[in-house]
Amino acid sequence: MKMTDEQADFLKLARSPIKFGMFLLFKIPIAFLSGIRIREITAEKCITTIPYKWLTQNPFHSTYFASLSMAAEMSTGALAMMNTHKRQPPVSMLVTKMEAHYFKKATGKIYFFCEEGAAIEKIVNEASETKESKLINVRTIGKNDKAELVAEFIFTWSFKEKQLNKN
């Protein structure tokens, strides 16, 4: 998959712990404080992590479902951001639906794997070409340190080219 300069620019930002950490701190502070991190990102996939700690816990000695949701969304959202970053004309992105399935108690560090970068790029391009809103369901799976399936999330993302005021 040939990468655009804008995608490469975003990957450089997302791979920098300091720059992306500052982005999280100022734009999504709860994700920063929760310890969500991008562990790996390419044009095709993104792996995020969330630790089990005081800020992410629930009363049942596992990671709170909302904390898991944030890390899961980040694994899909980073790929979406990569494909909308500095795009001209700009394309907006929005989660319109989320579905979650939990299989195992989430303890310790949880890794979310999303491998739908190519599909996201295709739908963003379609939204830009047609000037119409386009939806895509993006799957990510969460696993623990033992590679056991903990959760599966499906996020419905909407992409639409922004209408620029000509006034």
Characterization of the model:
It is a single chain. The protein has a 6-stranded antiparallel sheet. The termini are far apart. Helix content is 37%, strand content 30%. The chain has one domain (5-161): Hotdog Thioesterase (Thiol Ester Dehydrase, Chain A, Roll). It has helices at residues 5-15, 17-27, 29-34, 65-84, 117-130, and strands spanning 37-41, 46-50, 91-102, 110-114, 134-143, 149-161. The model has no long low-confidence stretch (mean pLDDT 94). The protein is of the alpha+beta class.
Q: The biggest beta sheet, please?
A: 6 strands, antiparallel
Quote the CATH topology. Thiol Ester Dehydrase, Chain A
Strand content: 25-35%
Classified in CATH, the superfamily is Hotdog Thioesterase
CATH architecture: Roll
Assigned CATH class: Alpha Beta
SS summary, helix count: 5
Average pLDDT level: 94
Helix content: 25-40%
Overall domain count: 1
Order of helices and strands: HHHEEHEEHEE
Strand elements, count: 6
End-to-end separation in angstroms reads 38 Å
Low-confidence stretches: none
Category from helices, strands and their pairing: alpha+beta
Rg (C-alpha, Å): 16 Å
What's the shape? globular
Strands of the biggest beta sheet: in what spatial order? Answer: 1-2-4-5-6-3
